[in-house]
Specification:
It is built from eight helices and three strands, in the order ααααβββαααα. It is mainly alpha-helical and 183 residues long. Strand 1 and strand 2 form a beta hairpin. Helix 3 runs antiparallel to helix 5. The radius of gyration is 21 Å and the shape is elongated.
């Protein structure tokens, strides 16, 4: 229903403009019904600080720590996690600048094709200093991520949602959280 409403709104805007310019005699979209949608937005599913600690402790010993950079970037920087088509799949080591304390998400990396900067917090800096990021191999990440998500009962975007929720809780800024997360 929301997709229908969105498409109706796009056509309506175009037709309304044409009607205002006297290119059309009437606006036929006015009679096209809109759907009323009741929104039930709750809190995003997140993990606790203790669960994050348990996850990261496990990852240090799992596969020689090779998955630590992937999980730390998703959990502590809110990078979109899909190993096939998420931001993490296109992220390169040169985007992570520990010397300046930022991760540059270039338009070709970003899901929304807009440049953004994510400030590297001290916990992420420590993880990336100990376990430097290298470009991911999707087949390798997918195989091991499946095992880890089952073990820790993690949903697809829970790490990213945790980053955003914790960021807002710490810094009290929805706007800055949205900017850093690319929302």
């Amino acid at each position: 229903l929301q997709t229908y409403n969105n498409r109706r709104a796009l056509v309506s805007t175009s037709v309304k403009y044409a009607h205002q310019q006297d290119w059309l005699v009437t606006n036929p979209i006015e009679k096209t019904p809109q759907h009323r949608i009741k929104h039930r937005r709750g809190s995003a599913v997140t993990i606790t600080a203790d669960q994050a600690k348990e996850l990261m402790s496990f990852l240090e010993d799992y596969e020689g720590g090779s998955l630590v950079p992937y999980f730390s970037l998703c959990l502590f920087a809110g990078i979109r996690p899909s190993p096939r088509d998420g931001e993490i799949a296109r992220l390169l080591p040169e985007h992570i600048r520990l010397n300046t304390g930022v991760i540059l998400i270039e338009p070709e990396v970003s899901k929304v094709r807009m440049k953004r900067m994510v400030k590297i917090q001290s916990n992420l800096e420590a993880w990336l200093a100990a376990y430097p990021f290298t470009p991911i191999k999707p087949w390798y990440i997918e195989y091991h991520r499946l095992k880890i998500t089952k073990r820790f009962k993690l949903s697809h975007d829970v790490l990213r949602h945790t980053f955003i929720s914790m960021f807002v809780a710490k810094f009290r800024s929805l706007g800055e959280a949205a900017l850093q997360a690319g929302n």
